[in-house]
């Protein structure tokens, strides 16, 4: 242990003095200090600290994904990183509980002093969105301007340097490489197609065979089966021009396989990974709505300091800025246990651990 | 203490045996028990227990409000009741954290067995919405049917018996009776109108007087002032045919008065009451979105068991089924401390406590 | 709006660059970066930000209390400040959820580099404790050293400058001034003493009169009544040499009065204030235990980096470092509604609002 | 789908009517209904519902563990079950947030009516404790009676039927069977012993070699190394008569191995399992303290309705009724990455997946 380390103190390690020199309320400069401005500053600074941590986790997760093959040894820590991001996002929602102890009138005491600064300009948050996979052209435009056009030039540069490829595209590539969906004679796609058709036909037969079923119900049930059939057909024969999926057909197929056979030892961590991505998408969405409601409560229908439409804009992002939405929609295509085709034994063995192999 | 009471035990007091006889998984009857169905039942039963508690709180709150004048002695317990409802709603969001430990495939093992039962049919939840103030005609319709039309006849009856008047209309009547907004010579409406116009004129003057302001900015700022003026005019001279307010003009006026002069002793609890109602509206909205996301995750874009469009319907309720939205919009109309007119001394004294009166 | 303000940006307002320059992992300097050290730094810096906010709230709360009489206009904002501190403390517990995503092995990668820095040295946290009312001599000693002795000299100075008087002593003085406990003919102490004795005698009589009561139960019940009587006697005639109360007898008496007659308009906010102080005490205690468990999980029974006994020390602080414990113990002395003496009418009127006075 | 299922409604599926017939406030029978008694009943019934769910999860987890070898296919669902229990326990803490909206005076309105019923008598909670692994003789005694002696005879029977073996003992047996800790030439115990001694000797040498180190510091550092050596010796050569471990030496050794080499594919889920058990132990402990604080707040230092010492007893259980404490203490024995011996290549291969085997 070096002499320097021996002298390390809590304050010097954490740069507490510098950290506590970062709060400079604008209202203080006007001579009419607004009590709640400190809270406003602190909560946003705490956000920036946590954004930094999220980016730090994404650094390792994306580096692990960037390898030609994602090492089995790394899946555990990828999942741990995603879980940590999820926990952080839950905390960020909790921070709004604190911010909401500010009243609208308390906010009004200093709000005008902040124009035209706006939370919109948080470069770290834009980076997180972009690195997760929110594409510029999927973003809601404000006054017909894209997000990038509304940023200061230097912030725009920071954003461009560091966002390629996104986690979503890395995930796509990784899923598309899943070896088990087509191995030797086995084709998951074929096996599943057969099972789906069999299940739907059985349902159709049981409807025809039920004399007690009132005619309107019979028609409704039959229509539902036709719809289901159409949905599955679109899944198996995706048409690039009409598809609403963001991920590639191969990735969707693999994600479905993982969800269905999640108990196979080799799929347990990949399944957990897909769940963690949905957790992140969901908690981000909840944070957006919560943020929108808080803004609505603070300023009503006034426009935001940065010129956006305020709470309306934020609500729209909760609706539209979903990143891993495909994983949510995947549930539409799950067959229940009664209909799920069994995996061939040889495949099952390959999906187990070495030590257990005969 | 009676003999009977002496023999009271935890189990007999809480009817634990009866309570634990209420879980009858459908999948058990089919001979293929689905592990997660118990969770599904338990979480919904826990919801119903908490709904009962919310209704119990509304019973007292609404009885207190039903008095010709709401007793000052009761304001504390009304606020306590509203805070309790808020805490319960937060807990209900937390219950979704537990429910989300169920995977879509786990749900699929028993989901079909539940048709056509649907969470939509929770009479207690419909009652809570109605008693808070969600009007039937403000509700989203499903397949062109109103909520009532979709309920079973006996449930419809339960709903009709017990929802008049709603807390929203009681609140409106109570606010409209606030004595201080017009007392002797003092008229809050006049006093505030003058202050608003003065503030907006000052802003307009400072824009004209700034030679450095680029012309487009000057136009934008001027337009913003015009808009603000129009907003305030609509507040002071509400036109019944175009108004988007749900509450009466007198109630809106009083709520604004309370928000502005919230530190006056007599207004501190009423202000807290308005905040508590917004807390409830907000947490109910968050629960709706959270519920919608969970459903999306569980079943994708399939329709709900009860025939609704599933997660899409639930998302729409988060957007549209707001009850105390007027209180959120009120923030639009607050003046900052620099512009807020002072209350006359005589009025201030009347708004204080007896013991302090000269 | 000045030119300067017009140019304000999110980054310049919040000093984002400076804020994000405060993270300097020690492990980076050794050439073997430990991934989790960033989390360790961020979470502690987030703590320091929130500690600053707590101190900011205490600034105003204590200033409001420092006035000769606490203005009725200020009670609302005092309560709001205490509620905000409570929300912050809940958030700090939530931060441990994030920190616990670090594994013990992850911590071990950099822990030795931090010696002898220790969370013990957080001056802001020591200040919060001291300003709330944790006295130096009530603190647990480490290696027979007091907390101050273990701090660096410059930190000791910061601590001394700013902690007198504590919120606990301000609360005591404020409670002791409560006018209503003895007003004209009315003495709460006398009135309550009579009611307590009557209630206990009634219980004793009903025990004697119950022939079915088994002798051991009779003796136990009688002993319980004797104990209760002794407890109340100690409350009414506090003996400075044996009292375990930290607050003065007059303050205890007033706090009891407020708790019993909390619905009186003039007491509603004071009652809420006492509850808020208990909320703070409780959430601080929970944070301490949670912290202790996390440390136990991270380092087992090793000593802390700063030389304390690690998790054992922290657990002891959860037990002993209670500040508003008297308020919790007060519940021991409440009479139920059946036994509570009514307030004289004249007193009731004085405890209402001016506008309602005849 | 059968006719019966088609007629299933929300109310009939969930037995809503029966569920809502279980709330019978005692105070109602006395003619003086206490408003808060409903909350008291509801919160306890919600607890019992969730306890049932925890027991349902334990049923499957323990059945999976009861197999001669725990199937790799089942590890994912065991972990999911433990995570669900953890989420439920967090929810139960949240329920106390709701219960604490009751004031002590509100509780006093009906508390006496409940004697001698007591939360102590919750058979389901006693079952959860016992099935997790809290042994009767490790429990705190009340009035020199064991927990079982204080239960009613019929409750005692329920408890005896269903608690053998506990999850703790199943965990012990499973860990003790871990194949990798001694395989062919490889002995984890030997390999780790060598590494520990080498690391401690290196530290000792660096202390001797540092001329700048003040003598008292040198002595303290040397003593710390001696202590560490003694700790490790006790780990490797456990003495049954002095050991404070609850688990067997083989189980401890395997748990340490898993914690150290957690990134090996075959150990990732076992590591997650150990973490989940600590999560459960920790959240149970937090619930106990939180419960104790709430009781202290409600009744001060009065005894509990069931005759226990009230909050003091509950605090003691938070301290003593720890179940998986050994896993926490394990962290004491981890070596950092610099000192951790590498696994032999052949062993590493056996700990990977089949598909990757050469």
Automatic annotation (TrEMBL), chains A, B, C, D:
Q: Which UniProt keywords apply?
A: Dioxygenase, Heme, Iron, Metal-binding, Oxidoreductase, Tryptophan catabolism
Q: Name one GO biological process term.
A: L-tryptophan catabolic process to kynurenine
GO molecular function of the protein, one example? heme binding
Q: What does it catalyze?
A: L-tryptophan + O2 = N-formyl-L-kynurenine
Q: Which domain of life is it from?
A: Bacteria
Q: Which cofactor does it need?
A: heme
What's a Pfam family in this record? Trp_dioxygenase
Q: Which residues bind substrate?
A: 40-44, 111, 305
Tagged with keyword tRNA processing: no
- What InterPro entries does the record tag this protein with? Trp/Indoleamine_2_3_dOase-like (IPR037217), Trp_2_3_dOase (IPR004981)
Say if the entry is tagged with keyword Secreted.
no
- EC number(s) of the enzyme? 1.13.11.11
In what pathway does it function?
Amino-acid degradation; L-tryptophan degradation via kynurenine pathway; L-kynurenine from L-tryptophan: step 1/2
> Which positions in this protein are listed as binding heme?
291
Cofactor binding, per record: Binds 1 heme group per subunit.
Q: How does it assemble?
A: Homotetramer.
According to its UniProt entry, the function of this protein is described as: Heme-dependent dioxygenase that catalyzes the oxidative cleavage of the L-tryptophan (L-Trp) pyrrole ring and converts L-tryptophan to N-formyl-L-kynurenine. Catalyzes the oxidative cleavage of the indole moiety.
Family in the record: Belongs to the tryptophan 2,3-dioxygenase family.
Name of protein: Tryptophan 2,3-dioxygenase
